[in-house]
Amino acid sequence: MTSSIVDSDTWIRRFHPAPAAPVRLVCFPHAGGSASFYFPVARALSPGIDVLAVQYPGRQDRRADPNVGDIHDLADLVAEAVRGWTDKPLAFFGHSLGAVLAYEVALRLEASGDATLVRLFASGRRAPSRYRNEGVHKRSDSGVIAELQALSGTDAAVLGDPEILRMILPAIRSDYRAIETYQHDPTRGLSAPITAFTGDDDPKTSLEEALAWSGHTSGAFELQVFPGGHFFVSSQAPKVLAAITEQLG
């Protein structure tokens, strides 16, 4: 379901432009997440790093756009949108579902030679070669909500508001379908270095599953472990941002 014409402005948000920065960091949200999750990241890293955030369809200002429930289809579309920003070196940061999507977009841009990718930050997600049969997208609405509550990544006020839930659950379910039906191609890998970030108490990613990202690049690999659960990127934001800055400096 690729599109020959993809409007970059539809897919990419640039909250704090940093045109003089030597590198761009493209950020990919988690399942159910939106570009605004990275607003504070863009503010914190500007002007040294030009931060872009991907806006998936089916949420916020794109709520009327059809959801895309397949990682490969989504990666095709995002890759086209990112090609409009390849005038300087790129780094990718993805959290949870976003880590796998960032990896797939990186594969496409490396294969086409359309971008200089300096690093992939894979956060809060086991390597593409590590599978779990979780089936969240097949659960009832209450089951999906229970999953969100367990991960503590969604505002409690949102989870308690039936009207908001009705609006966002289709996008969340579509995201879970995309990541839970994803199959990686074992014959493909990156040449760009990968840094994996994980929380020491993340129920979704074991240390071994995070280390397995090393098998997805022929370049350098590093694992950094932070205190916290699945959303350690929020609870440990200063440390995570410092690590990103250090590696892109």
TrEMBL record:
Name of the featured protein: Oleoyl-ACP hydrolase
InterPro entries: AB_hydrolase_fold (IPR029058), TEII (IPR012223), TesA-like (IPR020802), Thioesterase (IPR001031)
GO biological process, one term: lipid biosynthetic process
One function term, GO molecular function aspect: hydrolase activity
Keywords: Hydrolase
Top-level taxon of the source organism: Bacteria
Family the entry assigns: Belongs to the thioesterase family.
Name of encoding gene: rifR
Location of the Thioesterase TesA-like domain: 26-248
